[in-house]
Amino acid sequence: MSQALIHTRHPTARSLLHLRRARAHAALGAAAECHRDLAAAETASLTDAADPAPGWCRWMSTADLAVDTGQCLLDLGRTDAARARIDEGLTLLPRARDKTRGVFRTYEARSLLQAREVEQALLVSTESLDLATRIGADRCVTLIHAHAHAPAFKPYQKVDGVREFLERLRTA
């Protein structure tokens, strides 16, 4: 990743690469390195460019930056700050990006589960699954599974709606 950053000039591409490296640092629990890359991603995202972003990162927006920053904070155990950034990203995301919205809502549900707000997590997870099913986004459905929703919800099977959600997720 460092070599890619050395050779990448476009600010959008640099922002995305810093953000991806921040996610890796967060997953490893390397908070200082993660925060350094998040700051660099933010700085790059605020830099104007004369040329359009390369095709592989043209989709990158402030909404993506906010949500991925939230994911990093979530991995580092900063649930409240994570939720604020994820909420910010969801607010900034245009309606035309519904598939991304489904993914972001999955991240939001994960943050709610970590905060033990089970009913709200269930509501958000259900909305995410509904959206993914409606638009035929199989990857989003898989993401709901991958983000440990089923295992994370299992201790809460006595909460209204959890068993039904787990069953629906199992057959989705």
What does this protein structure show overall?
This protein is an all-alpha fold and 172 residues long. It folds into 2 domains: 1-76; 94-172. It has helices at 2-7, 11-27, 31-45, 62-75, 79-92, 98-114, 118-135, 138-146, 149-153, 162-171. Helix 3 (31-45) runs antiparallel to helix 4 (62-75) and helix 7 packs antiparallel against helix 8 (138-146). The longest helix is centred in the C-terminal third of the chain and has 18 residues, at 118-135. The chain is globular. It starts with a helix and ends with a helix. The model has no long low-confidence stretch (mean pLDDT 89).
Characteristic key phrases:
single chain; 172 residues; mainly alpha; 2 domains; globular
SS class: mainly alpha
Q: Tell me the helix content.
A: over 70%
Order of helices and strands: HHHHHHHHHH
Ends: how far apart?
A: 36 Å
User: What radius of gyration results from the CA coordinates?
Assistant: 17 Å
Total discrete domains? 2
Question: Roughly what is the average pLDDT, rounded to an integer?
Answer: 89
> Count the strands?
0
**Can you summarize the main beta sheet?**
none
Strand content: under 5%
Number of helices: 10
Low-confidence stretches: none
- The general outline is globular
